[in-house]
Amino acid sequence: MARKFITYFDKEGNDYTDELILAVKDKLDISENIKYILIASTSGESALKLADAIDNDEITIINVSHNVGFSGDNESDISEDMVKKLEAEGIKTYQGLHAFSGAARGVTNKYGGYSPLDVVADTFRMFSHGVKVAAEISLMAADAGLIPVGEEIIAIGGRAHGVDTAVILTPVNSKNLFNMKFHEIIAMPRD
Known about the structure:
- This protein is an alpha/beta fold.
- Helix content is 35%, strand content 20%.
- It is built from six helices and seven strands, in the order βαβαβαβαααβββ.
- It has a seven-stranded mixed sheet with strand order 1-7-6-5-2-3-4, sandwiched between helices.
- Strand 3 (60-65), helix 3 (80-88) and strand 4 (92-95) form a beta-alpha-beta unit.
- The two termini are 28 Å apart.
C-alpha cells in the first residue's frame, strides 16, 4: 500500500499551468521509471514552460498539437518558430489526427449521430477534459512511434489554453484502446 497525493484545482483552465508543472516535477523527483512526458500544447507555450522546469536529460518531452486543418484549411495552430524553439530544447512536436475524433467527426458532422469513440471520449470527460486529452495524446503518440507502449509515462492535458491535468498511464496503440491503464492522477480540476 502507498499513500499518494493528488492536486485538485478548483476548476479547469489556464490558471493552473504553473502549479501543474510543479506537481509533475514533484512526481518526477520520486518516480525513477518515468522516461517520457507527453504534453498537449496547441501553441507550444505550455510545452516550453515544462521544458524550462524539467532539468533532466533522461526525460523525453513530446509536444502534441492539433492536426493541420483543425482550426482552418491548411492552418497550423503552432508556428514554425515555436516548433524550432521546442526543437532547440530537445522537444519533438507531433501534429496528427485526433484519436477520438479524426475522420469520424467528419462523418458525424455531415450525417449526424455519433461514433463509438465519441462515447469513449465522453466517458473520459466524466473525470475531466484533461483526462480525455491525456488518453487521446498517448494513443496518438504511440501510433506515431514516439513513445513505447507498455511503459509508464506522464501525459498532460487540459482544455483550450494551458494545462490542468496530469496522469501516469501505460500507453497502447489505438487498436488496443481498452488495454490502456491509468495508474495515478497527479493533478486534475475538481469541477
